[in-house]
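Quick one: Haloacid dehalogenase from Paenibacillus beijingensis, structure tokens please.
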Amino acid sequence: MDGTLLQTETLLIHVHPRLFAALREEGLYTGETPPVDELIACLGMLLEEIWKKVMPDASEAARRRADELMLQYELEELEAGNGSLYPKVAETLRELKARGIKLFVASNGLEHYVKGIVKVKGMDDLFDDLYSAGEYETASKVELVALLMEKHGIKQGWMVGDRSSDVEAGKGNGLAVIGCAYAGFGGNAELAGADVCIEHFEQLLALLPKPEAAKEDLSSEITG
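--- reply ---
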């Protein structure tokens, strides 16, 4: 979701100051508000890992409260119209769906955050299912994607994402990996090992086999 479908910084610039103001008001955080870029750089990690990096000296109570506030404010800001999808995301997903391709989200985020984005952005009808670490309590995205594939009987496919966790999840489950180089949250090293990198989401369509070859292995154009 983050850094692949959603241009998350357009949401976090509204959430970030509210979250730290609330933590200070509740007496859970006394330091300066860290730069929002520090939070953005952690996107794709589990929340537990994010808070350890963004506010390493904070108490466990502060980090758990930050989880709650993050979700609350993200949903509020989404409902207020903040937070943008990357260009051509909705159109590309609809074209992929029209071609009979099953679409899933596998995110390290919270359940209601992932589902909230899909609902607010009018994408409910596009995805076959939504998987989040928050809902399934998985320790890694490798585990989350394995669960998805087992439940839906997926034998082949593409893992599309912008972080090293996406590359690991794809390779760890025998999937071709498409690296999304347009977000830039973690730098080029994040996508080392990806089969192909794209600069725009709609470039996924150009990687697909031609209609007459649709029954062939989808990974052939990437790995062949």
